[in-house]
Design a protein that fits this description.
The protein has five helices and no strands. Helix content is 70%, strand content 0%.
């Protein structure tokens, strides 16, 4: 079984993915122009608008949401680790791309981009390496 911290991390990461997934899928132009919301234009500063690409990113984020929150609900360590691997398969190339394409952003945005994307790698790494909760083994009744 999973530790509580694993479930919390899976749910928090899943909710963050849900926000960007719903936003990018439902309102791709708004996502393109305004993401992440507290600083605007991170996506717009990286190239021309492509509705297909934004909607695909949103749908992928929603699929990852289902995997992460589903893993928390199922509650086994094996499923949590599988969800973590799925998240890393997305997050590692994603941060890799952005690390190579930061120069056109203001310094404050560069730092925020690296920190927020680093979290998308650190959180699944943490859930991948956290040990599962030990099952209590009941001893057989003695006569």
């Amino acid at each position: 079984m999973q530790r509580t911290i694993t479930r919390v991390l899976l749910i928090l990461f899943g909710l963050a993915e849900a926000v960007q997934g719903i936003w990018a899928t439902a309102i791709p132009m708004g996502f393109y122009l305004v993401f992440p919301g507290f600083r605007s234009g991170w996506v717009a500063m990286d190239g021309p608008f492509n509705e297909h690409l934004i909607r695909d990113f949103g749908s992928l984020s929603l699929a990852l949401t289902a995997v992460l929150i589903g893993a928390a609900v199922i509650g086994t360590t094996a499923v949590a680790r599988m969800a973590s691997i799925a998240a890393l398969l997305f997050s590692v190339p994603h941060i890799g791309y952005h690390l190579g394409h930061l120069a056109h952003f203001p310094v404050a945005d560069q730092v925020l981009i690296v920190v927020t994307l680093a979290l998308t790698v650190v959180v699944p790494l943490a859930t991948l390496v956290l040990p599962g909760r030990r099952e209590e083994v009941s001893s057989p009744a003695t006569p």
